[in-house]
């Protein structure tokens, strides 16, 4: 398999991670979205959905046979055993699909830069052999403000969502590169552009010790 340059991209909710991922994709990176794959592997007709039905019953399916995410969430929320069983179905399927997409990227371009966009990289203990881990970071106050203004959430709900994820210190501890998204959109995009300038040239890609 041709090797690719693999970036693990993460950040808390409303940190601006998707903005950075989209910018890198505009530059030519291959964007693999872990959340999108988690939905893909449980679409109708998949082995994942079949196993979910066998494990949790038909009550977690809609009338058209698709997954009722609200019903499934109600089934596993607060039940660590049920959540672990769900993760045993979904996570391996996502890993297999991710590996397949990485192989395809490498076959198409030996110098491909793959951005693996993983919101819960820290929480899920994702262990792909990343060449670089990039954390998009914004303060809690800024993130709460974004969720209230842009997503219509209450401040309490926004704060609860933030605190249900890994803390900033946990994410920053694994970072090789930190993109500060507390400021303007232009400032965030400029940092993404700088990152691309470093990683797009196979001859001068940063290692962990040489990351910008």
SSE arrangement:
Elements: E1 5-11, H1 17-27, E2 30-33, H2 34-40, H3 47-56, H4 69-76, H5 80-108, E3 113-117, E4 132-137, H6 140-151, H7 155-163, H8 168-173, E5 177-180, H9 185-199
Helix pairs in contact: 1-9, 3-5, 6-7
Note down, in words, how this protein is organized.
Helices cover 50% and strands 12% of the residues. It is of the alpha/beta class and 212 residues long. The chain has a single domain (5-204), classed as 3-Layer(aba) Sandwich (Rossmann fold), CATH 3.40.50. A five-stranded parallel beta sheet has the order 2-3-1-4-5, with helices on both faces. Helix 1 (17-27) crosses helix 9. The radius of gyration is 18 Å and the shape is globular. The two termini are 28 Å apart.
Number of domains: 1
Instruction: Please tell me how large the radius of gyration is.
Output: 18 Å
Strand content: 5-15%
Assign the CATH topology. Answer: Rossmann fold
Report helical residue fraction: 40-55%
* The CATH superfamily title: P-loop containing nucleotide triphosphate hydrolases
The number of helical segments is 9
Largest sheet: 5 strands, parallel
Q: Give the name of the CATH architecture.
A: 3-Layer(aba) Sandwich
Cα-to-Cα separation, first versus last residue: 28 Å
Summed over residues and divided by their number, the pLDDT gives a mean of: 88
The side-by-side strand order for the widest beta sheet comes to 2-3-1-4-5
Q: Assign the CATH class.
A: Alpha Beta
Name the structural class. Answer: alpha/beta
Question: What oligomeric state do these chains adopt?
Answer: single chain
- From N to C, what is the helix and strand string? EHEHHHHEEHHHEH
Q: Please tell me what the overall shape is.
A: globular
